[in-house]
Write a structure and sequence with these properties.
The model has no long low-confidence stretch (mean pLDDT about 95). The chain contains 17 helices and 13 strands. The radius of gyration is 21 Å and the shape is globular. With about 375 residues, it is of the alpha/beta class. It holds the Pfam family Gly_kinase.
Length: about 375
């Protein structure tokens, strides 16, 4: 039996690399002679650098940057020749702030700009930024401030709240400093930055912005966009990562699919063509999994290779009809198999146990 294991992270419990190891361990308990190919995946969010480090011939540059609420946090840039890979969540990720301490209206992306500056200082001419998992909603104003942009009447590096009274924005210092640098925004979010489908209204809740606060916060971003470039705010992907997509588009970034990028770099299509079965996974397999997430991307590649795709997830919250629409043959839930308490207390062991169960059904 030839198997390809290509999971996403299990948010809060296992990285994609750790999840792949657990799945392989469980599968081999039942099928020790299996030929197993491993390709941990990411869509641009947390884990982006971990996954790419294993397949890109490069070196890691360690940097200390400003976190979303001002505390210093460690981060890394993956340098490969004149190309640099940046995981924006390392500087502004939701995981960097305890749930009780979240203040998304004050969160800044300044640290992402510091990562970009570090990459440029190290000689990068092309910067590929993975967008996702952000805990900020500042339209990327902090990023622009770190690169030299200035504002009058307000503050670009004080989160969305700092944009409330802006009267002027000057992006030229940032554009001048980044002249000759090619930016690529790797994200599968197509939302604009403003309005009902924008960053605040669609993604604000998970960051801690209440429904009552959303109109005012969206208004702050609107003020910024009117001063910095209103048309760009309506572009596809401008709403990614709390508006980080908008800031990068202002700098001339090209937007590409995060999962497609990772699939290409990991050789996912070639590996899928060599196996009998493709296994993927993530923390919650739900309706959001359809929208440019890892499982949707892996299932698409498996289907193109005419191979069945099976999902292992912490929770399965999608029906069989929707699964098959995505190209997923079957899905197995850790919570259903071992219980929620054990699934969170021992995620590696629980995932391995479910993988062993999957092998009983699918191994030849």
């Amino acid at each position: 039996m030839r198997v390809l294991i290509a999971p996403d992270k299990f948010a809060g419990t296992l990285t994609a690399v750790e999840a792949a190891a657990a799945i392989e361990e469980g599968w081999r308990r039942r099928d020790p002679e299996a030929e197993v190919l491993v390709a941990p995946m990411a869509d641009g969010g947390p884990g982006f650098i971990d996954v790419l480090e294993a397949v890109v011939d490069g070196t890691l540059l360690s940097v200390t940057v400003r976190g979303p609420l001002g505390d210093e946090v460690p981060a890394t840039v993956l340098l490969a020749g004149e190309t640099a890979y940046v995981e924006t969540a390392q500087a502004c990720g939701l995981h960097l702030v305890e749930k009780a301490d979240r203040r998304p209206e004050d969160g800044t992306t300044y640290g992402v700009g510091q990562l970009i500056a570090a990459a440029v200082d190290a000689g990068a001419k092309r910067i590929i930024l993975g967008l996702g998992g952000s805990g900020t909603n500042d339209a990327g104003a902090g990023l622009l401030a770190a690169l030299g942009a200035t504002g009058a009447g307000g503050s670009l590096d004080a989160g969305a709240r700092g944009l409330a009274d802006l009267t002027e924005v000057d992006l030229e210092p940032a554009r001048t400093r980044m002249a000759g640098i090619e930016f690529v925004a790797a994200s599968d979010v197509e939302n604009p930055m403003l309005g009902l489908r924008g960053a605040t209204n669609v993604f604000g809740t998970q960051k801690g912005i209440t429904d009552e606060r959303k109109p005012e916060v969206d208004g702050w971003l609107t003020r910024f966009a009117e001063l910095a470039g209103r048309k760009t705010a309506d572009a596809k992907g401008a709403g990614a990562a709390g508006g980080l997509g908008y800031a990068l588009l202002l700098l001339g970034a090209e937007r590409i699919s995060g999962i497609d990028l990772v699939a290409e770099l990991t050789g996912l299509k070639d590996k899928a063509s060599k196996v009998d079965l493709v296994l993927s996974g993530e923390g919650a397999f739900d309706f959001q999994s359809r929208d440019g997430k890892v499982i949707a991307g892996v299932a698409k590649v498996a289907n193109e290779a005419m191979r069945p795709c099976v999902v292992l997830a912490g929770k399965v919250q999608i029906g069989s009809r929707e699964m098959r629409t995505m190209g997923v043959e079957s899905a197995y839930s850790l919570v259903d198999a071992v219980g929620e308490e054990k699934a969170f207390a021992d995620p590696h062991g629980s995932l391995a146990a479910v993988a062993e169960r999957v092998a009983r059904t699918w191994a030849r």
